[in-house]
Design brief:
The chain is 35% helix and 29% strand. It is an alpha/beta fold. The protein is built from eleven helices and 14 strands. The chain is globular.
Length: 315
């Protein structure tokens, strides 16, 4: 767990970080977002111990990053935007070097490195020069060095930058698998990636926290309600009225898509946090109305981010 309390960072008369507080829970993926110049990178550098704060505290699994830096840093694996790779080393040579830097006991190195290389799938390039690897493999080696020393917390800054779609999918799967045993802070300008992997998001703007919540709750708070679009085959006369009887549904607006096929769309609004999809499924099944599609119409993370950072709202 990471606990950040009233963190402030000054550069002369300028405050880059203005008293922010948030936590990262065990085995949680936290998306850390903000426009350029918002204080995001400064905050991440303070968390990793690369920079010191002007005031406030950062505790990593109970260890203060300033008072117990060695104990705190042992808990953190860091992948900066530009991985600190030595291109004239082989993958094995580089990871052995990282073991030296992190003080991994020699009798535990072989087993630990074998596990890490298997986890991030770089076994097949372990004897190749890093400089000859593709961008995707270099990112994997960067993640591997962050895992050396068995840290419980990973901080990943732009882990998919410059990757092709297939490589992005592979890194996304890796992050999801790592989240089962690690707390992860991930920062990225590719908001769709954060939406795919993050349990919660923190949005920082102009040095202050603008939002902290799950994406679904942020969307509901910004829009005032949650919306679903239901496409099915059934009765135009009865379906909307029956859906409105479901607890939590505040509105159900039907539209005929194809009268010959009895295909309809209904836009369903809920005024609270009640989960209605299960009840809708059972209703449609009982009535014999096959569901063709049911999807959320809530704002995307990109829409939430733009709304908050443009000053249109605060969540």
């Amino acid at each position: 767990m990471i606990e950040i309390n009233n963190l402030v960072k000054r550069y002369g008369d300028k405050k880059a970080v203005k008293g922010i507080s948030f936590t990262v829970n065990d085995d949680e993926v936290l998306g850390f977002l903000g426009p350029n110049g918002a204080g995001k990178t400064t905050t991440m550098n303070i968390i990793t111990g690369y920079l010191s704060s002007t005031s406030g505290t950062v505790k990593v699994n109970g260890h203060d990053i300033l008072e117990e830096p060695e104990l705190a840093k042992k808990e953190i694996g860091y992948l900066p935007e530009n991985p600190p790779l030595y291109t004239d080393m082989t993958v094995n040579e580089y990871l052995s070097f990282i073991c030296d830097l992190k003080g991994v006991p020699k009798d535990k190195r072989k087993e630990q490195l074998e596990n890490i290389k298997s986890m991030v799938k770089i076994d097949d390039v372990q004897d190749r020069l890093i400089g000859n690897l593709s961008k995707g493999y270099k990112q994997r080696v960067g993640i591997a060095q962050a895992l050396v020393g068995n840290p419980s917390i990973l901080i990943l800054d732009e882990p998919t930058v410059g990757l092709d779609p297939n490589q992005i999918i592979e890194i996304r799967r890796l992050i999801k698998s790592l989240s089962k045993t690690h707390s992860i802070i991930i920062s990225s300008h590719i908001l769709s990636e954060i939406q795919e992997v993050a349990d919660r998001v923190v949005i920082i703007n102009r040095g202050k926290i603008a939002a902290v919540d799950t994406l679904s709750d942020l969307s509901k708070r910004l829009s005032g309600q949650s919306k679903l679009l239901l496409t099915f085959r059934g009765s135009a006369k009865d379906s909307a009225a029956k859906i409105r009887t479901i607890k939590g549904v505040s509105a159900a607006v039907p539209r005929v898509v194809d009268s010959k096929l009895s295909q309809l769309e209904i836009t369903i609004s809920t005024s609270d946090t009640t989960e209605v999809r299960t009840q809708i499924f059972y209703l449609m099944a009982n009535e014999g109305w096959p569901i063709l599609e049911m999807r959320s119409l809530d704002p995307t993370l990109e829409e939430v981010f733009l709304s908050i950072t443009a000053g249109k709202g605060r969540a």
